[in-house]
TrEMBL record:
SUPFAM superfamilies to which the protein is assigned, alphabetical: Protein kinase-like (PK-like) (SSF56112)
GO MF: ATP binding; protein kinase activity
CC terms in the record's Gene Ontology section: plasma membrane
Pfam families cross-referenced by the UniProt entry: PK_Tyr_Ser-Thr
Protein name as catalogued: Protein kinase domain-containing protein
Amino acid sequence: MGRKIEDGFMDVPFEEVEGGLNRLSYVVMDHQGVAVKSVPYELIEDKMSQFLSEMEKLHLLKHENLNCLYGISLDSESELCALLWGYPTKGTLSSIFYDESRPDRLVFSAERKFTILQQITQGMKYLHSKNILHLNLTFENIFLDRNYNAKISDYGLLPYIDICNYLHFAPETLSNVYSTKTDVYSFGVIMSCVLDPVSHPKFNYYSKTKMG
């Protein structure tokens, strides 16, 4: 993995990431962790120029509560595409809250929960100020850094990915109606699960450790 992560939008040689082409995988580039997310090639093949233009716009977004899109790797011969995102060290909110296999699974204090939720709203406020809808805001798309600060990931990708979790979707999305309210609905689901995990068995978690 010799490619250096720079500010410029990367056209990463595909052989550097091909070992990480699961739905979400972890690879190391330039001594940094990178989340590699595959994009179904058939969803972008007929609109490649639009896709690349939109991804470059996403790459330029900068906010303390957004996970950075470092770059993209394409292999047209194999019809494979991978997006390279930052990988904040604590993983996803999903794994922190309810992955029973994690030894560091935590119970957060009320103060920490409200801080995480506030950080998500700040990141979403920034996205909406740039006229970008997330449309797939889920536990799996929110990362936590080493200090447990929220980093929103996978924003603006809905037309180019397969959806596997419909719990967070607003009802109107079934009719292909989208707006900022769609993201607000998704945030409401996340907020409910964070503040009252006992009422949401999928997000229930337990640990003797308390985070302040």
